[in-house]
Amino acid sequence: GAGVSQSPSNKVTEKGKDVELRCDPISGHTALYWYRQSLGQGLEFLIYFQGNSAPDKSGLPSDRFSAERTGGSVSTLTIQRTQQEDSAVYLCASSLNMLETQYFGPGTRLLVL
Amino acid sequence: RKEVEQDPGPFNVPEGATVAFNCTYSNSASQSFFWYRQDCRKEPKLLMSVYSSGNEDGRFTAQLNRASQYISLLIRDSKLSDSATYLCVVNKGYSTLTFGKGTMLLVSP
Predict the structure, then answer these.
(1) Closest residue to B101, CB basis, from A41, A102, A103
(2) Does residue B94 surpass a pLDDT of 70?
């Protein structure tokens, strides 16, 4: 079946602009995660959605970052007023529930000039 | 102590060698453990789950030591295609999973 998909695959933007990154999880997966990975670094947890529960936003680095998940499926990560340090690969993952295997999408490579 | 700690490597080994990685975790209440593999510029992919009794999948063996709070991954008969970064993943109690920063393995001819 279809895996996790993300769009766009690459995004180049200018400092100060807003960007939206999209994630389509595997159908039926109730848990959805956003991570970011800077070059040569580990995965940094950003935010987590589980069903209809309030999201765990504890990993968001600043109030410029926000995410929503509509209808328990597609999720959008928004970064407002982008900064150069936001440049990274943004990875989305989904799982059947919060303790099950996470399946990752291919990521969105964001470059802020 | 970091939540999940791994030696970043790189581990340089010749083809056919046996190599082992350890990963320590800080939360004694952790229940779920995994090893993921990440190839350069690719997303992480599940390699194997780690069970209390230990488990084996072909050339790969994973073990859990709860008393010392570490998990291990043993790779036998290394192949060139095993070159990747291996991520240790632990759940934070009843919350989300925490990824280690990974151990890089380079297998040479």
Answers:
(1) A41
(2) no
Average pLDDT on A33-38 reads 94
Q: Does B2 touch chain A (CB under 8 A)?
A: no
Which residues of chain A are within 8 Å of residue B49 when distances are taken between CB atoms?
Answer: 101
Yes or no: say if B36 and B45 are a contact pair by the CB < 8 Å rule: yes
Q: pLDDT (tens digit, 9 = 90+) per residue, B19-76?
A: 999 999 998 888 889 999 999 989 999 999 998 888 999 999 999 999 999 999 999 9
Among A44, A108, A113, which residue's Cα sits nearest to residue A84? A113
Direct distance between the N- and C-terminal alpha carbons of chain A, in angstroms, rounded to an integer: 37
Question: In whole angstroms, what is the distance from residue B87 CA to residue B71 CA?
Answer: 11
> Which tokens is A97 given?
């529930």
Q: How far is A105 from chain B, CA to nearest CA, in Å?
A: 7
Instruction: Report CB contact under 8 Å: B97, A105.
Output: no
With an 8 Å Cβ cutoff, are B101 and A98 in contact? no
